[in-house]
Design a protein that fits this description.
Number of domains: 2
Number of helices: 13
CATH architecture of the largest domain: 4-Layer Sandwich
CATH superfamily of the largest domain: PPM-type phosphatase domain
CATH topology of the largest domain: Phosphatase 2c, domain 1
Structural class: alpha+beta
Radius of gyration: 30 Å
Strand order of the largest sheet: 1-2-11-10-7-8
Helix content: 40-55%
Order of helices and strands: HHHHHHEEEEHHHEEEEEEHHHEH
């Protein structure tokens, strides 16, 4: 409604100026208020509409000044020239803003193409596994940064990774491309998760040797690498310095899958070698693995309190379950999480966020039984 009605704002300004002119003594002129009309039209109308607004303002001023007997060289003509000049300036500003908008749209389109090339969105399903992914950039025009997610069907089961590379800008995007490429190759050829990690370590080490400065010696990637069993009843994790994911159950309860043995991020083998311990968990029907980067866990409110997904997400899901009678879909869970993080931080995205939800739906028979019981 606002988009339709705001186009009438310049006309309202002209009417208001006429009313002011009629209700005030002749020495009081509404010409300054009339000059506001073409200015308000800069972002609301096209050049033809701005020109029409300016001409209408000039006509109204001329009629009102003639009726008051104040249309003379010192006031009438001078005000007309001022209105014409402001109208011309408003048209110029409109064309300049339009040009900037076109340039920004082209830049955003190029960024979207780059995002799809570097960070392709995972499929919505692989077999019985349902998948949802979101990338929430810290900057509006930067649609991709140093956070990443990737999901792939392999001969060893569905494998996924969520990661966060050190740094910002082009170097971070380059590292994301290296990480995803290394993971895709290793996921298809490595029989277990430690072998996947080792392949990625080698790729990051080679990439680090081609860099300079801090990126050469301090480049690393925090990563959570996931593998599902053939029947999706078990999930295996390797956590290399990454925020612990949440295991969400169909009843809305959640469990943070903290690693029992800490391991450093990928890409710092120059400082030593570490094992990649594999953690395994039951993944019952209706369960969902919620993965995210530190843009979520490091979001702070005005008091400096960090966002705690394990504390806040279960309440949202249980509320949704009570209201609807069924668990939230993966895409809805990511929407809830992104909005809640934004609300916690006061609407300001403090760091990029890569969100990934991997869901094993309830069997159809269970859903039918639940619907029958409810009826």
């Amino acid at each position: 409604m606002w988009s339709r009605t705001r186009r009438w704002i310049p006309a309202v300004v002209i009417v208001l100026a006429a009313v002011v002119e009629l209700l005030t003594p002749p020495p009081v002129s509404s010409a300054p208020l009339l000059t506001v009309a073409p200015v308000t039209a800069v972002t609301l109308l096209r050049p033809s509409g701005i020109l029409g607004t300016g001409l209408a303002a000039m006509a109204v001023h001329a009629v009102l000044a003639y009726e008051d007997g104040t249309f003379g060289w010192q006031r009438g003509v001078a005000n007309q020239v001022t209105l014409a000049a402001v109208t011309a300036l408003a048209i110029g500003l409109n064309r300049s803003l339009h040009s900037q908008h076109v340039s920004a749209s082209r830049a955003r389109y190029a960024a979207e193409v780059a995002q799809r090339a570097v960070l392709p969105r995972p499929p919505s399903r692989l077999g019985d596994l349902r998948i949802a992914a979101r990338y929430v950039p810290a900057e509006d025009m930067a649609l991709i940064g140093g956070d990443l997610f990737v999901v792939q069907d392999t001969p060893f089961g569905v494998r996924a990774m969520v990661g966060d590379v050190r740094g910002k800008g082009l170097s971070a995007v380059t590292a994301v491309s290296i990480d995803i490429g290394a993971f895709r190759y290793a996921a298809d050829h490595s029989p277990d998760l430690p072998a996947v990690v080792q392949c990625m370590e080698e790729a990051l080490l080679r990439e680090g040797q081609r860099r300079e400065g801090l990126d050469r010696t301090e480049g690393f990637t925090t990563a959570l690498i996931v593998q599902f069993s053939k029947h999706l009843d078990r999930v295996h994790l390797v956590n290399r310095g990454h925020p612990a994911p949440l295991l969400l159950y169909a009843n809305g309860q959640a469990r943070a899958l903290e690693p029992t043995e800490e391991a450093p991020p990928l890409g710092i083998t120059a400082l030593g070698t570490w094992k990649s311990p594999v953690e395994s968990y039951d993944f019952p029907p209706g369960a969902m693995l919620l993965c995210f980067t530190d843009g979520v866990t490091e979001a702070r409110d005005a008091a400096g309190t960090f966002y705690d997904p394990a504390d806040r997400v279960p309440g949202m899901l249980q509320s949704y379950l009570r209201q609807t009678g069924h668990p939230a879909e993966p895409s809805a869970v990511l929407d809830f999480l992104a909005r809640d993080v934004s609300r916690h931080s006061g609407g300001a995205v403090q760091d990029d966020q890569a969100l990934l939800a991997l869901h094993r739906p309830l069997p159809r028979t269970d859903l039918l039984a639940k619907e029958t019981a409810e009826e």
